[in-house]
Design brief:
It contains ten helices and 16 strands. It has 376 residues and is of the alpha/beta class.
Length: 376
């Protein structure tokens, strides 16, 4: 245990100090590759910075484990001795822990001679940006190695340290990025009727969009539409010719997501006809919802034991692990980090966790690798 913890600390602290943003994880990828080589593996380079390790036990089916490897553009404020050496970048979402857990699994399996299935370890770039998981899927690696199931984890400060938390079915939301620009016509405020006020139109749109959630979508279908940014006008006594606003849409259903987008487009058309303005609109889905496979969920629950916490409700956070679940059965779960010392949330400059929880993560990964029975 102490030997594993020492190795975990070494891996985690080195990775924490070299955070890199999506698809630019060159130092991170090099370090992972070299550490895997030291264990005796022959890592595969997939995509420019992604890495995979295939453990062939000559079985028909393969079980995959995935870690994301990228960081965020956040200035670290943890004060730890191994803090980021890359200014303005930080592992503020626990990906240093995710990578360490997967390295730990590789370490545990390096001398194993037989398992019920083959094992594929995936170190995925670009989770925080678009196309991270799809870039891995598009390599054809799942078909090549006959992958029939996949697990992934996330350090999670909303769950108590020492707990493994999960639920079957919806766990995390589908997310989309909303971008709207209203093009009106400038005029002096004293002659506002000669202009087309983009601020007023944008205000109507924001209000009407919220009514979609409260009056069009069933209250049994949780969804969030948040406008977090708005820009319009330049001078107080001039009718604003252009106003833009940006937000996020989150649901647990791709059908509900599409219905909301179509309803927003309907309001846009109404405003364009009523005010003779032009509205540029985009609300592309960023990630599908994370929907945990029932069978693999039961296998996880069976292997966790007493430390398992079944979540009553999903969360409105998003995760690109969902793309894998569109093509193969998968389960995503949380490793609790909440304690008296570390209470900061994800994506904050003070996020941190005790490295002992990574021992628990590695041991659970090993149990899954040894015990999970894969379906068809």
């Amino acid at each position: 245990m102490e030997e594993l913890l020492d190795q975990i600390r070494t891996w985690r602290r080195h990775l924490h100090a070299i955070p890199e943003i999506g698809f630019q994880e060159y130092k991170t990828s090099k370090y992972l590759y070299e550490e895997l080589e030291k264990m005796g593996y022959q890592p595969l380079k997939i995509t420019e910075t992604g890495i995979a390790v295939y453990l062939d036990f000559h079985k028909e089916k393969t079980l995959a484990f995935r870690s994301d490897i990228d960081a965020l553009e956040i200035e670290e404020q943890t004060g730890v001795s191994f803090k980021s050496t890359h200014q303005g970048k930080m592992h503020a979402c626990g990906h240093d822990g995710h990578m360490t857990a997967l390295l730990g699994l590789a370490y545990k399996l390096k001398d194993v001679q037989d398992l019920p299935h083959n094992v594929l370890l995936i170190f995925q770039p670009g989770e925080e940006v678009v196309n991270g998981a799809p870039s891995i899927i598009n390599t054809g690696i799942f078909e090549k190695y006959h992958v029939k199931g996949i697990y992934g984890l996330h350090m999670f400060p909303d769950v108590d340290e020492g707990k493994i938390a999960c639920r079957k079915g919806p766990l995390m939301a589908e997310s989309g990025e909303l971008d709207v620009t209203v093009h009106g016509k400038s005029a002096h405020a004293g002659k506002y009727h000669e202009g087309i006020d983009s601020i007023v139109i944008a205000s109507f749109l924001i209000s009407n969009y919220q009514s979609i959630i409260s009056r069009i979508i069933s209250p049994m279908q949780p969804c969030v539409l948040n406008i977090g940014e708005i820009h319009g006008g330049t001078v107080r006594n001039i009718v604003a010719s252009q106003t833009s606003f940006h937000g996020t849409l989150r649901t647990y259903s791709e059908e509900v997501f599409s219905r909301i987008v179509e309803a927003m487009k309907g309001f846009n058309q109404g405003m364009e006809q009523a005010y003779h303005c032009q509205i540029d609109f985009a609300c592309q889905p960023f990630n599908p919802p994370v929907l945990n496979d029932a069978h693999l969920y039961e296998e996880l629950k069976k292997n966790v034991g007493a430390n398992f916490e079944e979540l009553e409700e999903p969360v409105m956070l998003a995760e690109d692990f969902a793309h894998y679940q569109k093509v193969i059965p998968g389960v995503f779960f949380y490793v609790g980090t909440r304690c008296k010392e570390y209470t900061s949330g994800l994506h904050t400059p003070t996020f941190n966790f005790h490295e002992e929880v990574l021992v628990q993560a590695v041991e659970l990964y090993e149990k899954l690798a040894r015990n999970v029975q894969l379906g068809d």
